[in-house]
């Protein structure tokens, strides 16, 4: 499992997004496919709790606040500059959302938010930017409440897309420190076996993206 220098990765992400954060949501809507479907699929119970790992500008949490007004919402990100944008968005009326600066691969939810478990945890195009992504999957599942679920949308293997498109896309993504996690399904299956959890895993848009849901037993 890869290990990263947390402060070093934080500085990298701050450098990448210091200017991009101002146009991030406008540009990403064209190629971060499936994010809105993930929010709709959370099906948060009334009064339930939701945690987003790698919350970025807060775009997804703002949508979740609109869709689930009774939910308790939480988000963390390693980038201070992205969190600054998220905090401004929440002040504009996205509801009461608790934000914290932390590394998604190693964090203490109780210290950050005063609670250890959440009914729903999700990652939206975040695993492909986190070097120790396998450790992040485990950390995410560790804070899912019994009977709760982890939801993931991210880049897929692009296995049903033309080879030239796949190669070009991956070169372009690498320029932004993004790497599709081709073994995501196998890692999730391994975690499910350890935890007695169930997995739903869908390849969408001809393999461009994947959507996964891990549901823990009660």
UniProtKB/TrEMBL annotation:
An example Gene Ontology molecular-function term: methyltransferase activity
Start and end residues of each Methyltransferase domain: 50-148
Keyword Transferase: yes
SUPFAM superfamilies: S-adenosyl-L-methionine-dependent methyltransferases
UniProt keywords, alphabetically: Methyltransferase, Transferase
GO BP terms in the entry: methylation
PANTHER family linked to this entry: TRANS-ACONITATE 2-METHYLTRANSFERASE (PTHR43861:SF1), TRANS-ACONITATE 2-METHYLTRANSFERASE-RELATED (PTHR43861)
Lineage: Bacteria, Pseudomonadati, Pseudomonadota, Alphaproteobacteria, Hyphomicrobiales
Protein name: Methyltransferase domain-containing protein
CDD domains assigned to the protein according to its UniProt record, in alphabetical order: AdoMet_MTases (cd02440)
Pfam families: Methyltransf_25
């Amino acid at each position: 499992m890869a290990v990263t220098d947390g402060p070093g990765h934080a500085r990298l992400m701050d450098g990448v997004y210091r200017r991009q954060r101002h146009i991030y949501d406008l540009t990403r809507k064209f190629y971060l496919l499936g994010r809105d479907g993930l929010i709709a699929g959370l099906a948060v119970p009334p009064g339930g709790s939701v945690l987003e790992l790698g919350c970025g500008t807060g775009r997804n949490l703002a949508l979740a606040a609109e869709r689930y007004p009774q939910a308790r919402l939480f988000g963390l990100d390693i980038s201070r500059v992205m969190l600054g944008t998220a905090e401004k968005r929440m002040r504009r009326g996205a509801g009461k959302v608790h934000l914290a600066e932390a590394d998604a691969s190693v964090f203490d939810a109780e210290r950050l938010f005063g609670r250890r478990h959440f009914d729903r945890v999700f990652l939206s195009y975040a695993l492909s930017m986190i070097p120790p992504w396998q450790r992040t999957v485990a950390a995410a599942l560790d804070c899912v409440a019994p009977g709760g679920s982890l939801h993931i949308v991210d880049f897929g293997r692009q296995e049903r897309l033309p080879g030239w498109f796949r190669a070009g896309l991956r070169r372009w993504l690498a320029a932004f420190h993004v790497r599709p996690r081709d073994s995501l399904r196998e890692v999730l299956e391994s975690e499910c076996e350890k935890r007695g959890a169930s997995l739903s895993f869908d390849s969408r848009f001809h393999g461009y993206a994947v959507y996964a849901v891990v549901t823990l037993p009660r």
